[in-house]
Amino acid sequence: MRGYLLLTEARSGSNWLGSLINNSGNMGRSSEWLSPKIHRLDTSSLSWEEFFEEIIRKSSTENGNFGLKIFPNHLFITREVYGMDFIQYCLSVHDVALVFLRRDDTLRQAISYARARQTRSFAAHIGGNSDPQYDFEEIAKCFFYIRDSYSFWRSYLELTGAKSTEFVYENLVPDPSPFVSCVAEHLGVPAPGALQTTMAVQRDGVTDEWVARFDEDRRSAHLLDAYDRREHIPGKVKNFFKLATRSLEPRYPFAF
User: Fold this and answer.
1) Which residue, of 93, 94, 146, 162, has the fewest CB within 10 Å?
2) Which residues belong to any copy of the Sulphotransferase Stf0 domain (predicted)?
3) How many CA atoms lie within 13 A of 242 on its CB side?
4) Nearest-angstrom CA–CA distance, 201 and 175
């Protein structure tokens, strides 16, 4: 089977680009299929092989092509359960193209991510459950997290020696066809003649306002507080027991 894996991080434009590909009907079904909230599989009852085949099935169109986007968090969640590297295994059994997508403007990406985490609205057509409130530390935390994710992907690709193609979101906004054509060529299908999507850009005046406030606040902010990744441990009896017996395991990398 042929497929592509889009390696990126949240709020990188991957939903928009994925919708352009999904609307073709023959280039896979792009989504965050490794996220438990998306795949909704009972991993406790599935072997690695069964889980992998289910992910491929969910991400495939009828012609057998598949596609999914992966954040570092997804990769480590899967390893926590199965002890496997999904990407390396996928490369070993299928004809897969790796595509690395990033944004140049990390601050606006971080603001978008912070707003989405507050409102739980990760697309313009999904209504939020609250009004976003400016939070310097949350934006800075998202900024650090996004930069760490991009650094991870670059290092991962270099160390594995895997061939990949890199795209920058800002370069694709005027014309996303280079991205779509790259995926279509690998999958062996014609690139769509007309690119269609129902998604809209979530950017608005609030983003510009928060950029200005953040630029002012960062001059006197305590940035180390935003980068501190230590987990707050709820004061539950079972956690006190785990601490006492040294059986409380740290979170996996990129847990956020």
Assistant:
1) 93
2) 4-217
3) 11
4) 15
Residue owning tokens 């070993």? 92
Locate 243 and state its tokens: 């601490």
- Could you list the pLDDT tens digit for every one of the 256 residues in the chain? 999 999 999 999 999 999 999 999 999 999 999 999 999 999 999 999 999 999 999 999 999 999 999 999 999 999 999 999 999 999 999 999 999 999 999 999 999 999 999 987 655 444 555 788 999 999 999 999 999 999 999 999 999 999 999 999 999 999 999 999 999 999 999 998 888 777 766 667 899 999 999 999 998 888 888 887 765 555 555 655 555 566 556 666 777 6
The Cα 14–Cα 3 span in angstroms is 16
Contact 21, 183 (CB under 8 A): yes
Instruction: Give CA separation, 169 vs 13, 16, 110, 117, in Å.
Output: 6, 10, 14, 21
Q: How many CA atoms lie within 13 A of 209 on its CB side?
A: 8
Closest CA to 12 of 165, 146, 206, 203: 146
Give the separation between CA 164 and CA 99, rounded to whole angstroms.
Answer: 5
DSSP 60: B
Do residues 170 and 106 touch, judged by C-beta distance below 8 A?
no
pTM of the predicted protein model? 0.88
* Residue 143 tokens, joined: 């900024």
CA torsion sign for 50, 25, 11, 145 is: positive
Q: 222 is written with which tokens? A: 């305590």
What does CATH list as the number for 2-229?
A: 3.40.50.300
